[in-house]
Design goal:
Elements (H helix, E strand, L loop, with lengths): L2 H26 L7 E4 L1 E2 L10 E4 L5 E7 L9 E8 L5 E8 L8 E8 L2 E6 L8 E11 L4 E11 L2
Parallel strand pairs: 1-10
Antiparallel strand pairs: 2-3, 3-4, 4-5, 5-8, 6-7, 6-9, 7-8, 9-10
């Protein structure tokens, strides 16, 4: 073999390893990379500042989200409870995102408390705006992928 053929085959081999590595990373990637199976629709009339809210998938699966203390404020410890219906999740995480402003990565894993129930702690980051619109997604992870349950609420600086 000529030196140029050896180099060519070495490059082909390195590219194959790189492609396999990227494919493996996407398959083994953390929770944000799981395929979305379905996204629910939240009850538009519900206010997380006053009560727990529910969201429903087209297939009938539900998530009930409760965040306390109420009203919800940034930079205060929050107690979170999620009750799932019609879905058997291996784990549940909450993902808080600013709707109109990137607030970085704010994801919190919840612990299984009982069948279909998950609890944990979370905290919203500080925001420079007087009023901030948030979307919190309940991410229910199964063997097949993730079910997403979005909820919106706003916070007002004191």
């Amino acid at each position: 073999m000529k030196r140029s053929e050896i180099i060519l085959w070495a490059l082909v081999g390195l590219m194959a390893v790189a492609v396999a590595g990227v494919g493996g990373w996407r398959w083994l990637a953390p929770s944000g990379e799981a395929p979305t199976l379905a996204t629910a629709v939240a009850d538009p009339g519900c206010d997380l500042h006053r009560a727990a809210c529910s969201a429903r998938l087209e297939n009938g699966g539900t998530a009930l989200l409760s965040i306390e203390p109420r009203p919800i404020r940034p930079v205060e410890p929050l107690s979170v409870r999620v009750a799932l219906g019609g879905i058997e999740a291996e784990r549940v995480e909450l993902d808080f995102a600013g709707v109109e402003m990137n607030m970085g990565f704010n994801r919190f894993p919840l612990e299984a408390a009982a069948t279909g129930e998950f609890t944990g702690a979370a905290m919203l980051p500080v925001c420079v705006r007087n009023r901030m619109l948030w979307e919190v997604q309940v991410l229910a992870f199964t063997d097949e992928g993730v079910y997403r349950f979005p909820f919106r609420f706003d916070t007002v600086q004191q």
